[in-house]
Design goal:
The chain is α+β, with helices and mostly antiparallel strands. The chain has nine helices and six strands; from the N terminus they run H-H-H-E-E-E-H-H-H-H-E-E-H-E-H. The chain has helices at 2-11, 18-26, 30-35, 81-91, 95-114, 118-137, 148-162, 186-197, 215-228; strands spanning 41-44, 53-56, 65-70, 168-170, 177-182, 201-205. Helix 1 crosses helix 2 (18-26). It is globular.
C-alpha cells in the first residue's frame, strides 16, 4: 500500500509530501503508514486523519539488522487481519491492556534503537507481539492465528537464543514468524531453520524510502534477479 500510495498519487499528478503520503498509505494499511520511509520509523497514532502519520526516528540504529521471514503458511488467512483485529477490539478484555502496555514500550524502544541495544530491541519486539496475540486469543469467540509450525518456529528461536544466538521472534496478525537478528547470525539461523522450513525462509533488511523508479530501472533489476536465480 505504501508503493500504491506513491504510484497512484504521482499518476494523478500529485506531488505529496512524505507526511501526506504516510496519511494516504494508512488508509490501505497501518503498516504502510510506516513504509513510506526507510530505516526505523515511528507511527503516531493520533486522534484524526491529520495527526495519525509516521516519521523516521531522529537517531537511526547502525546495527546490521536483519529479519528472517519464515513462511509457515502461504494460504489465505481464515480470518483477515482487518476482521480479526476489529473483533479483538470489540470483544477482547485484554485489548486495552495491550494498547496501554505497548505505548509504555515506545520510549525504551526508541532509546534502545538509538543505543544499538539489540537485546532490548529484540525483547521489546517479542513482548509486544506476544501480548497482541494474547489479546487475539481472548476475543469472543476465542481465536488464534497460530499453527503447529508457528509454535515450532518460536521453539527454534528460543533454542538458538539459549545457545547465545541473538534471535527474537515477532508476528503480525497471521501464522508466519519473523525473526529479528543481525547479519553475522543469519547463516547460523538459516542452518537451524532449514531442516524444518526448507526454502520457506527469506532474509530481509531495513529498506529505503518508497521511491519512483523508471521502467528501465525496473527491467534492469528484474534482469539482475533472474540472472542470480
Amino acid at each position: 500500500f505504501a508503493a500504491l500510495a506513491l504510484a497512484a498519487s504521482r499518476a494523478a499528478g500529485l506531488n505529496l509530501t512524505p507526511t501526506a503520503l504516510s496519511r494516504l498509505a494508512r488508509r490501505g494499511s497501518g503498516s504502510a503508514t510506516r513504509s513510506i520511509f526507510g530505516g526505523a520509523v515511528i507511527w503516531h497514532r493520533g486522534s484524526d486523519d491529520q495527526s495519525s502519520f509516521a516519521e523516521p526516528l531522529t537517531i537511526q540504529p547502525t546495527l546490521p539488522l536483519r529479519m528472517l521471514v519464515v513462511t509457515v503458511s502461504d494460504q489465505k488467512k481464515a480470518v483477515s487481519s482487518r476482521t480479526g483485529m476489529a473483533n479483538t477490539i470489540a470483544t477482547s478484555p485484554y485489548y486495552q491492556a495491550w494498547v496501554q502496555s505497548n505505548e509504555a514500550l515506545i520510549s525504551p524502544m526508541i532509546t534502545a534503537l538509538a543505543e544499538n541495544d539489540l537485546t532490548t530491541i529484540g525483547a521489546l519486539t517479542e513482548l509486544s507481539s506476544m501480548r497482541m496475540h494474547a489479546a487475539i486469543m481472548a476475543e469472543e469467540p476465542p481465536f488464534t492465528y497460530f499453527l503447529p509450525e508457528t509454535l515450532r518456529a518460536w521453539q527454534l528461536v528460543q533454542e538458538q537464543r539459549a545457545l547465545g544466538i541473538p534471535a527474537f521472534a515477532t508476528m503480525d496478525a497471521g501464522p508466519n514468524v519473523k525473526i529479528l537478528t543481525t547479519a553475522p547470525y543469519v547463516d547460523v539461523l538459516m542452518t537451524a531453520l532449514q531442516p524444518v522450513f526448507g526454502d520457506r525462509i527469506l532474509s530481509t533488511r531495513l529498506g529505503p524510502d518508497a521511491q519512483v523508479i523508471t521502467k528501465e530501472q525496473f527491467n534492469d533489476t528484474e534482469s539482475a534477479i533472474t540472472s542470480q536465480g
